[in-house]
Amino acid sequence: MSGNNSMPLVYLVDDEFPIRDSLTLLIESTGQTVRSFESAEAFLENYDPEQPGCLVLDVRMPLMSGHELQNELLNRDITIPIIFISGNADIADSAKAFRAGAVDFLEKPFDTDVLLERIDEAIKKDIVFREDRIKKRHIQERINHLTTREKEVLGLIVKSHSNKESASILNISNRTIEAHRSSIMEKMQAENVAELITMVMYCEALGNRLQEKRFR
Predict the structure, then answer these.
(1) What is the overall mean pLDDT for the chain?
(2) Is 165 within the bounds of a domain?
(3) Which of 56, 115, 135, 205 gets the most CB atoms within 10 Å of its CB?
(4) Residue 150's CATH number
């Protein structure tokens, strides 16, 4: 199942049934699909990483807390945007959540309109994040098809070195550099050098964002 072709899901994890029930009805009233769980463990057993969406998560729960679930998701390289909700959290709790990449932290009782707005924003972020990740993968696959020498030449192109400068640095002829550049342009499916550089820079910048595992 492809995340891009799937309807977004709002995952709701809270150990109190009345809260789960009321929030499920609220969120579903906007047309969103909700899957609710009474524990972090149940969520982990049923979560589909290919499904776009967001996670509305309680902080204080028996066994695995909301913070512990957040850390477990990071350990598993799962980057679903998280909106924390809590009735008895403190500043330290919210700071900890944000440091680990939460998109918001709402204290109960919260404004339901604000929650719905945050959910909508989080889902949009997740969809964009997934599209960016796919785009990065496609660019990286093209880079991986370059030879070792072509990757060296590409690195010099990105640094704005001319053919003559690149030839001198690599101690090869201008004609060889031109041949490598032509091959690089074809393999990277770039119309011009500006597009080629943009693709590589985009891939590197997005790679850093993915490594940080942040949505904020």
Answers:
(1) 89
(2) yes
(3) 56
(4) 1.10.10.10
Q: Contact, 157 vs 184, CB < 8 A?
A: yes
Q: How many residues are recorded in the chain?
A: 216
Instruction: Count CB neighbours of 90 within 10 A.
Output: 11
Number of structural domains (the chain) is 2
- Is residue 80 domain-resident? yes
167-178: string of b/e by CB count within 10 Å (b at 16+)? Answer: beebebeeeebe
Give 3-35 pLDDT, tens digit per residue.
445 789 999 999 999 999 999 999 999 999 999
* pTM for the full predicted model: 0.73
The whole domain housing 119 covers 3-129
Contacts of 140 (CB under 8 A, 6+ apart): 203
pLDDT tens digit sequence for 82-108: 999 987 766 777 788 878 788 898 988
**Residue 135 domain-assigned?**
no
